[in-house]
C-alpha cells in the first residue's frame, strides 16, 4: 500500500503539522539565517526543506540539497525535477556525472557529501555558480561525525562558507542530541520538535537462545500479518535477512529481503513491492534505515547488536536504532506505529526505555589525524590556504576546533612534509606530485604512502600488484571469507607467481593491513585474478562461492580506480633501477598497465594484448576472443577473411587490424612469470596459516 506524504497539499496553515507550524512561525522562511532542525521521522522535515528551496529559486538564486546516500538523492531528484522543472534540477552522485557547465546551468543541485566535496576540490571551475548560491540544505546532518563521509561533509560546508560567506545553511536530522556545538559552529537558530504525525509505541520481546529468538519473531510477524499490518524487519547481516525471509516464506507469509549485496534492480523491485502492498514483510539491513521512504505499520528490530570488528559484538548505536524505528507508522494510513525490539534476557536493562534516553553528542570526525590530513591536503591543493597563518585560520573554523578536538597540527604538518605530501617554500605551503595524485584520485594520504613504499619493491608480479591495491586503506569492499572460499583460493594460488605470499611474515611486513583484514586481502586478490581469467562476474562469483556478485562488481570498480592511481604514481616517483631497467620480462609500470586492462575488462594477460592493437575496442576484443583469437600475436597470424563476422568492421579495416597486430606482436613485453612448485606451495601454506590464525582469533 503506498504511503501518503505528510506534506500539506495547500498553503492553508491548518494543514500544517505542529512542528512545521512552529518552525514557520519562528521565521524560518523570512529570517534569512541558518537553521538547525531536529524533527522525528515523518514530521515534515523534507517539506520544510522544499519550501526553503522554492523560496530561493523564486528569487532567481541557486540551492544545493545534500543527502547521505544515493537512494535519497535519486528519490528527491525525481520529485523535484517534476516540481521545479527538469531543466532546473541536476543530480550529482557516483551514478550521475555533471560537468561544470551543466552544474552552472541548474538552479538546484541534488548531491551527496562526497560528490559535493569533489566539486570543491577545484573551486575555480565552479566559482561563478558558487557565488550565485544562496542555500545549502543538508539532510541527516548528524552524519557529520561519520568517519570519512563526515569529514568530507564538514570540509565541504567549511569551503562553501569561505567561498560564499552569505550562504544560508539548513541542517535537518531526527537524531541530533546535544546541539550546542553544531548550532554554534553553523551560527544557526535551533528548533527541536517531538511531535510525530504517527505516534510510536515501543515494546520488547525477550529471549534466551537463538532458536527461541527466531520462534518468537516468526510468531510476532504472523500476528502482525493477521492484523493486516505491514512489517519491516531489520537484521544485522545480509545472510540473516535472507534466512529469516526464507523462514517466513515457509510459513506462507509473502516476504522479500533488501541489502547491499543485491543488484540495484533487485533492491528497487523489493522496495516497490513493499511500498505498493504486494508483499507484507520486508527483511532488511541498514540499507533501509534512511533514504527511500518505506514506512510500515510495524518495525521489528531483530538484532540489537552489531559486529565490533574484533570478532565480537556490541550493542548497536542508539542513533542507528532511532533511524530504524522512524520507519514505523504510515502517515495517512496508521493512527499509531509500533517498534518492537528482540532483546536477550541479559540485556533487558540496557535497552529499557532506550527511546527516551539522551543521544550521545556529535563529535567532529576531524578529530582523527588521518581525516584531518586529507582536509589540509585538499585545502592547500584547492588554494583555500597558502600560508601557515591562513591554514591556522582555516582549521580554527572547523567544528573540530569548536569542540576542542583538533589534533596536534604542527606535528601533523611535520609528518606531511616528511612523507612528501606537502612542501614549504618561503613560508608558503605547496602540494607535491604525490599529493596532487592523491587529491585527484580521492586517495587517503595513507594510501598514497602505502603505494609509494611498495613500489620500491624491485620485482612485483601481477598478483603482487593486486595485493598492493587490495591492502590499501581505500580499497572496499574486501570480500568475506569462509572455508570453501579458502579452498578455491588455494587452487588459484597453485598456479601463479607471487613475492609477498612466500611466508606470513613477508606478507605482514610488506602489506601491513589490520590483522583481521589480512585473509580477506588475499582472498579478494584471488577473486580479482580469477575474474581476469574467466571474464564473467557470475562465473567468478560461482567459482569462489561468493554469495553476492554485486560485491565482486564493487571490488572490481575499486581495483580499477586504485590501479589507475598506482600506474600514474609510477610517473611521479623514482622507481628502483632494477625495476625500471630489467632487460628480461617487464617493468612494474608495464605490468600495471596490462593489469589495469585485465581488471577493467576481465581479460587474461594474453587477451589484454588485443587492446594494444590500434583500432581494437574492448567490445571488439571480446568478439575476437569469442572467435578464438585470444592475443595480438594470434590476430596478426589470422587471415583477414576469418574476421568477416567481426561486427561493424569492413574488409579494409579487417586487413589493417591484422597488419597492425603483426607490428604490435613484435613489440609486446613478455608476461610470462616464473611459477615454481616451491613458490606455489609456499603461497598455499601461507594462506592456510592465515585461515587458521583467523579462526583462532575468532574463537577467542
TrEMBL record:
The keyword ATP-binding applies. Gene3D superfamilies: 1.10.3380.30, 5' to 3' exonuclease, C-terminal subdomain, P-loop containing nucleotide triphosphate hydrolases. SUPFAM superfamilies: P-loop containing nucleoside triphosphate hydrolases, Sec63 N-terminal domain-like. GO terms for molecular function: helicase activity. This is DEAD/DEAH box helicase. Residues 26-194 form the Helicase ATP-binding domain. The keyword Hydrolase applies. Residues 217-378 form the Helicase C-terminal domain. Keywords: ATP-binding, Helicase, Hydrolase, Nucleotide-binding. It comes from the Bacteria. The lineage of its organism: Bacteria, Bacillati, Cyanobacteriota, Cyanophyceae, Leptolyngbyales.
Amino acid at each position: 500500500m503506498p504511503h501518503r506524504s505528510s506534506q500539506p497539499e495547500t498553503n492553508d496553515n491548518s494543514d500544517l503539522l505542529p512542528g512545521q507550524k512552529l518552525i514557520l512561525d519562528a521565521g524560518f522562511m523570512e529570517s534569512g539565517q541558518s537553521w538547525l532542525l531536529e524533527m522525528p521521522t515523518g514530521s515534515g522535515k523534507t517539506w520544510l526543506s522544499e519550501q526553503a528551496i522554492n523560496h530561493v529559486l523564486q528569487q532567481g538564486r541557486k540551492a544545493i540539497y545534500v543527502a547521505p546516500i544515493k537512494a535519497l538523492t535519486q528519490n528527491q531528484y525525481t520529485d523535484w525535477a517534476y516540481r521545479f522543472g527538469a531543466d532546473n534540477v541536476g543530480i550529482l552522485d557516483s551514478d550521475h556525472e555533471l560537468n561544470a557547465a551543466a552544474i552552472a546551468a541548474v538552479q538546484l543541485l541534488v548531491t551527496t557529501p562526497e560528490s559535493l566535496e569533489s566539486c570543491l576540490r577545484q573551486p575555480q571551475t565552479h566559482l561563478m555558480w558558487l557565488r550565485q548560491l544562496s542555500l545549502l540544505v543538508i539532510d541527516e546532518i548528524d552524519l557529520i561525525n561519520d568517519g570519512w563521509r563526515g569529514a568530507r561533509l564538514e570540509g565541504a560546508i567549511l569551503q562553501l562558507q569561505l567561498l560564499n560567506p552569505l550562504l544560508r545553511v539548513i541542517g535537518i536530522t531526527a537524531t541530533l542530541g546535544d546541539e550546542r556545538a553544531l548550532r554554534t559552529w553553523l551560527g544557526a537558530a535551533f528548533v527541536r520538535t517531538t511531535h510525530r504525525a504517527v505516534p510510536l509505541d515501543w515494546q520488547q520481546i525477550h529471549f534466551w537462545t537463538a532458536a527461541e529468538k527466531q520462534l518468537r519473531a516468526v510468531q510476532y510477524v504472523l500476528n502482525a500479518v493477521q492484523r493486516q499490518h505491514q512489517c519491516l524487519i531489520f537484521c544485522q547481516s545480509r545472510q540473516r535477512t535472507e534466512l529469516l525471509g526464507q523462514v517466513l516464506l515457509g510459513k506462507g507469509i509473502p516476504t522479500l529481503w533488501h541489502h547491499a549485496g543485491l543488484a540495484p534492480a533487485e533492491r528497487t523491485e523489493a522496495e516497490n513491492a513493499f511500498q505498493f502492498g504486494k508483499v507484507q514483510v520486508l527483511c532488511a539491513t541498514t540499507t533501509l534505515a534512511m533514504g527511500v521512504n518505506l514506512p510500515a505499520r510495524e518495525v521489528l528490530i531483530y538484532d540489537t547488536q552489531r559486529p565490533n570488528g574484533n570478532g565480537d559484538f556490541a550493542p548497536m548505536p542508539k542513533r542507528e536504532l532511532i533511524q530504524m524505528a522512524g520507519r514505523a507508522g504510515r502517515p495517512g494510513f496508521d493512527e499509531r506505529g509500533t517498534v518492537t525490539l528482540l532483546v536477550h534476557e541479559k540485556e533487558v536493562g540496557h535497552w529499557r526505555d532506550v527511546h527516551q534516553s539522551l543521544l550521545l553528542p556529535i563529535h567532529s570526525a576531524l578529530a582523527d589525524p588521518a581525516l584531518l590530513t586529507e582536509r589540509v591536503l585538499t585545502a592547500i591543493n584547492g588554494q583555500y590556504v597558502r600560508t601557515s597563518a591562513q591554514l591556522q585560520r582555516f582549521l580554527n573554523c572547523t567544528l573540530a576546533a569548536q569542540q576542542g578536538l583538533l589534533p596536534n597540527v604542527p606535528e601533523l604538518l611535520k609528518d606531511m612534509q616528511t612523507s612528501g605530501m606537502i612542501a614549504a617554500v618561503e613560508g608558503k605551503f605547496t602540494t607535491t606530485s604525490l599529493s596532487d595524485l592523491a587529491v585527484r584520485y580521492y586517495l587517503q594520504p595513507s594510501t598514497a604512502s602505502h603505494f609509494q613504499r611498495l613500489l620500491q619493491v624491485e620485482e612485483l608480479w601481477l598478483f603482487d600488484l593486486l595485493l598492493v591495491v587490495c591492502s590499501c586503506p581505500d580499497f572496499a569492499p574486501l570480500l568475506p571469507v569462509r572455508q570453501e572460499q579458502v579452498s578455491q583460493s588455494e587452487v588459484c594460488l597453485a598456479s601463479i607467481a607471487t613475492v609477498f605470499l612466500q611466508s606470513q611474515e613477508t606478507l605482514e611486513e610488506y602489506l601491513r593491513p589490520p590483522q583481521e583484514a589480512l585473509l580477506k586481502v588475499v582472498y579478494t586478490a584471488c577473486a580479482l585474478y580469477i575474474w581476469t581469467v574467466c571474464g564473467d562476474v557470475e562465473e567468478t562469483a560461482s567459482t569462489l562461492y561468493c554469495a553476492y556478485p554485486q560485491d565482486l562488481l564493487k571490488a572490481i570498480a575499486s581495483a580499477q580506480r586504485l590501479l589507475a592511481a598506482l600506474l600514474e604514481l609510477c610517473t611521479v616517483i623514482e622507481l628502483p633501477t632494477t625495476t625500471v631497467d630489467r632487460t628480461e620480462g617487464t617493468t612494474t609500470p608495464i605490468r600495471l598497465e596490462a593489469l589495469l586492462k585485465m581488471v577493467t575488462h576481465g581479460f587474461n594477460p594474453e587477451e589484454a594484448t588485443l587492446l594494444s592493437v590500434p583500432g581494437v575496442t574492448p567490445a571488439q576484443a571480446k568478439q575476437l576472443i569469442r572467435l578464438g583469437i585470444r592475443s595480438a600475436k594470434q590476430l596478426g597470424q589470422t587471415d583477414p577473411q576469418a574476421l568477416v563476422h567481426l561486427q561493424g568492421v569492413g574488409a579494409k579495416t579487417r586487413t589493417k587490424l591484422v597488419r597492425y597486430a603483426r607490428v604490435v606482436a613484435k613489440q609486446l613485453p613478455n608476461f610470462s612469470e616464473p611459477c615454481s612448485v616451491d613458490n606455489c606451495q609456499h603461497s598455499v601454506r601461507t594462506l592456510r596459516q592465515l585461515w587458521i590464525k583467523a579462526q583462532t582469533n575468532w574463537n577467542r
